[in-house]
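Table S5 (text form). Sequence records supplied for joint modeling of the two-component complex.
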Amino acid sequence: MKVTRRNLLLTVPLLAVSLQFAGPGAAHAQQTLINVSYDPTRELYRDFNEAFSRHWQAEGHEPASIKVTHGGSGSQARSVIDGLEADVVTLALEADINAIAEKTGKIRPDWRGTLPDNNAPYTSTIVFLVRKGNPKELKDWGDLTRDGIEVITPNPKTSGGARWNFLAAWAWAEKQYGGDEAKVRGYVTDLFKHVPVLDSGARGATTTFVQRGIGDVLLAWENEAFLAIEELGPDAFDIVVPSVSVKAEPPVALVDQVVDAKGTRDLATAYLTYLYSDEGQTIAARHYYRPSNPKAVSDKSLLEKFPDLDLATIEAFGGWAKVQPEYFGDGGIFDQIYKPGN
Amino acid sequence: MTTVLSTRWRWRSSNVIPGFGITFGFTLFYLSLVVLIPLACLGWRAASLGGADLASLGSDPRVLSALATSFWTAFAAAAVNVVFGLIVAWVMVRYRFPGRRLLDAAVDLPFALPTAVAGIALTAIYAPNGWIGQFLQPYGLRIAYTPLGIVIALVFIGLPFVVRTVQPVMEELNRDVEEAAATLGASRLQTLFRVVLPSLAPALLTGFALSLGRGVGEYGSVIFIAGNIPYVSEIAPLLIVMRLEEYNYAAATAIGSIMLSLSFLVLLLINLIQAWSRRRFGHVL
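The corresponding C-alpha cell record, covering 627 residues in total, follows.
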C-alpha cells in the first residue's frame, strides 16, 4: 500500500485508539467466565449471574463478563472435550463431567468432593406431569403400564434427564418386586411399550406432551414440571408425585486447566461457591430446584413446593461409573428392552 | 458433446479458459480440502474399529432396521418429489399467472429454512391435535410420530432439488418437437410419454438422486416428527448421534461410513441408469 496522506490521517487515530486498549487497560482487562450448562437451567443461571455479578462487585472486584451456554448435557460435554474453553461446567450428569475429566484431563479426576454435597448445589427429582384433574387417575409408577396409557419420556440414550426417568422407574420396581430382577426388567420393558414418542431431549418431550397433546403423562424433572405449569397456566396440568423417585444431582465443577490458563481461578471458584450461599440457594429454590442446604433459603415458603418422598440415590445403583455402561451403554439394559420379541 | 466423445480421447483440448494446469491443480486441491480429506478421516476413524466389530455393527438388527428406515423413507420421498416436482416445474415454466414469481421463490424456502424449524412446524401441523392431523385422527391415520411423518419431512426437504433441476431443462425444451409430434398424429399422452418425458428423464433422475441423497442423511427435521421408536421410526443418523453421546466415535463413524457407501452405491446406480437413458433416448437439448 502506498503511504498517502489520507492513509496516514487514518492510521494515526487508529494507532492512538489501539494503544489505549493495549496500554494501561490490559492490566485490568475484564475477566470473562464461561459456564457450560445444560438445557433447563436457562432461567436459573440468568438470575444467578445477575446476583453473582452484584456480589462480585460488592466485594470490590472489577466487573466480570459471564456467559452461559445451554444445550443437551452430553453434547455440551462433548463441546468442552472438543475444545470449548469453559471455566466451569454445570451439567445434568456426573457421567458427563467424568467424561471430560477422562478424555481431556482438563478437570481433575477427583473433582467430585471439591465442593459440598457431591458438588451438587441443588438437586431435583422425577415427577409425573398429567393433564388437569388427572383424568386417568395415575398415582404411582404401577398405574403407568395400565392398558391404553401413553407415557412421554425422552430417549435415555440421548438425554441425560431421561436416564433419571429410567432409574426412577427402576427404583420403584425394585422396591415393589423386592429386588426380583426379572420382574423389574419386565416392568420397565412394559413401561417403554407405552411410550409412543422418544424425543431426543427433555425440552422436546415437554413440547410433545404440552403442545402436541400426545400422551397421558410426562416423566419430567420436578423443575421442568413446575416451569411447564408456570408458563402454561395451572388450569392445564397437575403434578403427581410418585411414592418412589430418584435424587437427581446435577453437578458443577471447575475446569482446572482452563481457569489456570486464563487466570480466572478466583473468579470461577467464587462463582461456584456462591451457588451454596444463602442467595444462591434461594435462587435455586425459586427456580424449582431443591436446594442442597434448605436452611440457607431465606424465604421458607419456597420450600413448601417440594414434597417429601422416598428418593433413591445414584449410589444405591452403584454410581454413574457402573450405571452408565450397564444400563445405557451400547447393548445395555435399555437397548435390550427394545430387542424384538421382548 | 457427442463429437468430443467420438474423437479420440485426449488429455487436454483447447478451451476458452486458458491455464489447464492451474485450474486442474486447483480443482484437485479444492476437492481434496472440501470433500476427500474429511471423508478419508471418516474412513480412517471407522477403520480403527477393526473388522470383527464392524461386521457385528453391520449385522446388528437395530442398525439394519434404522438403515432400512432411512433408505426407504428417502426413496419414497424422492419418488413423490419426482412426480409432484415435475408438475410444479411444468406449471412454473409453461403457464403465466399472477403470483408466479412469488410461487417460484417459495419453492426455495425449504433450502433456506433451518431444518429443525421445518421439523417442528411439520410436527405441529400433522400432530393429532394439529391443523391437518386433527382431520386424519378420526380415521386412525397418524402421520406425526410414525415413519409416514419421516416421509412428509423428506418430501418437504427434497422438493426444491427436483424442481430446480427439472425447471431449466424444461425451459429449453423445443416446443416445435411437440408440435411436430402432434402434426404427425401423436395423441397428447403419446407426446408426453414419448417426446417430453424422455428428454426430461436425465434431469428428473438427477433431481431424484439429489432428493434421495439429502433425505438419507437428514437429521434436523426428521428427529422432531419421527417419534424415534427403535425398530419402527428410528433413523440411522439418530444412531450416530447416540454413539456420539456415548463418546463412541469409532462406532459413530462406522455407521456413517456404512451409510455413505450405501448412498454411493445408490447414486452410482442412478448415474448408470442416467447414462443408459442418454444412450437410449439421445441427448435432446
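Note: The two ends of chain A are 75 Å apart (CA to CA).
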